[in-house]
Structure formats: structure tokens, C-alpha cells
Amino acid sequence: MKNSLFQSRVLRWGLFSLMVMVLMFAFGTQNAKADLKATDVFEAWDRSASKFEHGNVSLWLDPDWWVPMFHVFGNDNDAYPNACGPNTSSIWAGELVMQLDHLDTTGGAGFQASRNWTIVECDRSGDGKYDNKDLSYPLNESAPLYGFKQWSGIGPNTFRVISQDVQTDCTSGTCANFLATTMFVNLDPDCDNTLGDTTAPIDPLYVIPAGGLCFYAEAQPPAVGAINWEGNLQARIFAGGGDKTVNFSVRGPSAVSISDFSANSAVFNLGWAAGLVGLMLLVVSSLYWWMRR
Question: Counting CB atoms within 10 angstroms of each CB, which of 65, 196, 285, 292 has the fewest?
């Protein structure tokens, strides 16, 4: 009787262990997300993960591939003066600064340049809202702005570049200098502290899309053969006293197929999962055989 009770407990323990390990595997491999103020994260496209990320973004050394980045505009209640001319102001206007690590203290190469700074619609998937779906929506590498839709209200009154890729000395860490691009942004062209044009007659060009507006730019990675950057490369965005950073991990030259890398990773994960489940089934089967002796 005692032996039967012991065997029953052993079997229950084996089944419980199998369930726990399978659940742990499933959980662990789900992801093997003012005046103008930078309050939201700064996103960059990860070619390995095929989605926008704001941390540990894989960066491949390919100067022909410009990394697309975007940031959802935010604000606080501090009005930016002279946004629409003398004696005007708006809480939806201000200066935006993008910084790209360029050179480290050991001679390591960072980003080489930036381009295509503009305002775009945040809703990439076309469902009328901005959500996680827009982070993984496929990138159109053959289209201008990689398929992002530029805001119809873009113009000198709403967006202009003040200075471009100015080399600026770093003050801490292993960074020697960075590239700084400063821009003026005004999402309230009639300066009534409301997004878009809300003063009659309303100009349809300044209508704010349902998914909101985002800042967009592209950065050029280091060339193949460049000295590796010490640590993680960073891109930063500043506005209205707020700042956000996205970190990049240099993965190597892009001669290694990105698609092959992703496919091999997926095959490895599936093989590992099958092996784990098979091992646990063998353990449970052995326990069952032992109890039936």
C-alpha cells in the first residue's frame, strides 16, 4: 500500500514538473515595447527582430542601410514663445534635438550621418490608431521614408531643420563626440494651444490624423571594417527638458544574411523545444514503467 502511494506521488511529481518546464519555456521564448517634450520612447528598426524596438536594437554594419527611427510627440503646459510669429505661443511647439553617438574615446566608429528628418503619421498599419501593431508592421525598404506617411501639414511654419549633424564633444562615458541635429517643430499652426488648425476656416492640410503625429529620421551606421564602438551605441532625443534614449548593439557586417540569421534562430528554438518536451516525456514514461514493474 505504501509503495503504491509512493509511486502515485512520483507520477504526479513527474507530470507537474513537465507542465512547469513547458510553461517556463513558452513564457521565456515569447520575446527571444510643454512646449514639445520628449515623454515617449525613441524607437528604431531592428532588422533581426523585424520590428521597432527602444532597447538593445541590433545594428548591422551596412552604410547603405539607413536605420529608421521615430518618436511619438508629447508636450507639457509650458508655452513656446513666438511659435507662429511675434507675440504668439503654443504648448505644441518647440525645439527638438537628435543626438547620435559618432566617435568613442578609443577611435571606435558610431553613426556617420542622419537624414530625412520630418513629421509622419504614427499609424503605420492603417487601422486608425497607434498601437503595438505599428511597431511590427512590415517595413517597405523600397519606398520613401520606408513607407511612413509624411504629414500633409509639413512646411516651414511647422517643421524646419536649424542645424544638421553638428559634431559636439561628449562630457562623460566612452563617447568622444556625437552628431547633433536641431529642429523647430510646431504642431499647432494657428497657436491656439490645440493640435492642428482649429481656427475657421480650417486648413485641411493641418488636420491631425487619428493615430497622431511622430518625429521621424534615419541614421547611417558605421562602415564594414570600422573599429568597434566600446559598449552600446546610443541615439537620443531631447525636447522641453525631456529626453529619451535608444541603445544599439553592433552585430557585425550585413554580409551575413539577416533572413538566414532569423530563420536559424527560429529553427534552433523549435529544435530545443522539441528536445525538452521529448526528454520530459521520456522521464515520465520511465517513471510509469518503473511503477508497473
Answer: 292
Least confident of 11-20, 226-235, 263-272: 263-272
Q: pLDDT at residue 265 above 60?
A: no
Q: Which amino acid is located at 151 in the chain?
A: W
Asked if 214 and 119 count as a contact pair (C-beta separation under 8 A), the reply is yes
Look at the alpha carbons of 155, 119, 186, 248 in this order and tell me if their dihedral is positive or negative. negative
- pTM exceeds 0.85: no
Average of per-residue pLDDT values in the chain: 81
Span 173-195, average pLDDT: 95
DSSP H/E element including 51: strand 51-53
The angle subtended at Cα 217 by Cα 43 and Cα 220, nearest 5°, is 95
CB 159 within 8 A of CB 118: yes
Question: What is the residue-wise DSSP string for 97-149?
Answer: EEEEEEEETTS-B---EEEEEEEEES-SSSSSS-STHHHHSPP-TTSGGGGPP
Residue 8: the pLDDT is 57
Report how far apart the first and last C-alpha atoms of the chain are (Å, whole number). 15
CA distance 162 to 143: 26
What one-character-per-residue DSSP string does 148-177 give?
PPBPTT-STTTEEEEEEEEEEE--STTEEE
Nearest to 193 by CA among 292, 94, 266, 58: 94
Farthest CA pair distance, the chain = 94
Of the candidates 112, 134, 137, 138, which has an alpha carbon nearest to the alpha carbon of residue 218?
112
Helix crossing, 258-292 with 2-28: angle to 10°?
Answer: 170
